[in-house]
Every structure is written in C-alpha cells, then in structure tokens.
Amino acid sequence: MRCYTICLMTVFHVKKGGSLIEYLTALGHTRTKIKQLISHRAIEVNGKAAKDLAQLLHKGDKVSVSKDKKGPEPVLSLGMKIVYEDDAVIVLDKPAGLLTIASETEKTKTAYYALNEYLRQRAPAAGERIFIVHRLDRDTSGLIVFAKNEAVKRMLQGNWKDVEKRYYAIVEGTPAKKEGEIISRLSETRTLRVYSDPHSNEAKLSRTKYRVVKHGPEYALLDILLETGRKNQIRVHLADIGHPVAGDKKYGARTDPFGRLGLHAYLLLFTHPHTGVPLRFESRMPGRWRGLRLSPIKN
Which of 104, 223, 276, 298 has the most CB atoms within 10 Å of its CB? Predict the structure, then answer.
C-alpha cells in the first residue's frame, strides 16, 4: 500500500478474534463513525467491503480503514509525508532540515514530536504513539521507519542488518573507481565529529558500498548501499576517498549547490515484523538535483 501526504487507507492485522465493532471502537472510532464508514464502503476485511458491525474477525484477518474524505483531517506538519502505515509501523518521507528526534536545543521541531502529535489529534482515545527505530541526519532527506510499539521496535532493530538501506549522494568530483566498498572503524570526538580511526579498539566497524550512476565536471551522483548504520557514516566515508557530499562543510565540502546536504535516503526494504511480508519503499530524488545535468556512466 502506498499513499502520499496522509494515508488514504490504514491497514490493521487482527491479533485476537471478536466482532468488527469491538475491534474498531478499541482503535478509537465511535459507533456512529464506524456506521458512516461502512455505509461509504470505507472498511474492508481481507479485501472485501464490510457490511455488518457484528461481523466476526479472526486472528490474522486484515482490516483496512479508508480515510474519511468529508471530515477534517489533522495536518502532518513540517513538510513530512506518510508513505505507509499499518498497526505496526509508519514509514515517513522526511524533508531536509528536520531532526529525527530532539536535541539539547530543539525539542519540538522534530519528526518524532510532529508524528506523535499527528496521531494524538487523529484519534485521541486510541493512545497511539511511535518508537524510534533509526535516525536520519537533520539535513538528509528521505525514508525513515517508526514502530508503533516497543516490541516492533525491538524486532526491527534486532534485524536491522538485514534491512536494505540505499541513498543517493551528490558528491564533489567523480571517484576514480566507479564502484567500490569503503571499510573503516569510526570514532567520535568530544565535539561530535566522526572520523575513521584505525588505531582504536573501541571504534566501530563500518561498511559503505557505492556506485557512480552519473557524473559531470563538478559533481557525481552515487548510489549508496549502507551495510552498517553508524552516525555520519556515509559522509565520513565519502570524505575519506576525497569526494565529500556536496554541502557537507563539516566533512570538507567546498561547495553547497542546494543549501543542504546532497544526501537522500531513497530506498528502504524490510520484512514486516508481524506478517513476514517484504515491504519495499522508494522516494524520488529531490527535484533540484536534476538541474545539475549529469551524464550517465558508460559501461
């Protein structure tokens, strides 16, 4: 299921049998609201429109609830978009310039805070909240997944090495090797600068694969496969090979063509923690990047 800005349909997986009305009221819907949704064929059970409030549900059934297009919707703020939502996870497309979680100086202008507020306004009685699974840097845009309960969070984090995470990176110059893997151990200074540290036993092993997709006189577009998920890993590794991410002054970039990092998390592929079904999500490259007029690499 894909959706944009706000989900057109939310999918729930039934864990315990009971009637449809009991299940939906437990999610925060009123009886009147449920009747309206059924009359508009906005509730489906296993892909078929529900017709009866008393319909029995069984463990493993899939209940889909479409958005009520007539009623007012709470607005998901700060430029975020919900790509997918069900009863276990929410996948967001985060804009550049937005923190994932709070810092010492910013408590509320974050993806975590805004999404929790959105869920609270949408269904105050449901008591929904989200849990952090991973993070994106403030100036990195793209896909990020949140869990809807702590058990799902632990399951996703426990299998994080199996999650496919791909990024587009605009870098200064073009790597001589058109494809490669960067391996180093990363440490962090007291001033929060991450660096490759071959001498420390406490430094964390980090692996980044890259492939040059397009190039030009000043910049190249790289497809990045993140094999480990260390803080600032992609930025440090690309700087290590002499091709820092455009706009990344912290790690040596000399130019800033977009007023932000040239880094976008475009693909996320993971196994659903409840159903075991593979979920694949993609996000378009930021439109301004196409203005660089890069040429495809010839094989």
Answer: 223
Same domain, 63 and 171: no
Tell me how far apart the alpha carbons of residues 149 and 155 are, in angstroms, rounded to a whole number.
10
Asked, for residue 14, whether it belongs to a domain, the answer is: yes
Q: What tens-digit pLDDT sequence spans the chain (299 residues)? A: 333 333 456 788 888 889 999 988 887 778 888 888 888 788 989 888 898 999 999 998 988 887 644 444 455 778 898 888 888 999 999 999 999 998 888 888 999 999 999 888 887 777 888 999 999 999 999 999 999 999 999 999 999 999 999 999 999 999 999 999 999 999 999 999 999 999 888 899 999 999 999 999 999 999 999 999 899 999 999 999 999 999 999 999 999 999 999 999 999 999 999 888 899 999 999 999 988 989 998 76
Residues 144 and 47 in one domain: no
The enclosing H or E element of 112 equals helix 111-122
Judgement on whether residues 224 and 169 belong to the same structural domain of the protein: yes
Q: Are strands 81-85 and 48-49 parallel, antiparallel or unpaired?
A: unpaired
Q: Which residues are catalytic?
A: 137
What is the distance between the terminal CA atoms of the chain, rounded to a whole angstrom? 35
Looking at the structure, do residues 89 and 66 belong to the same domain, yes or no? no
Enclosing domain of residue 116: 74-158
Q: Do residues 49 and 147 share a domain? A: no
| Coil, helix or strand at residue 79 | coil
Q: Are residues 102 and 219 in the same domain?
A: no
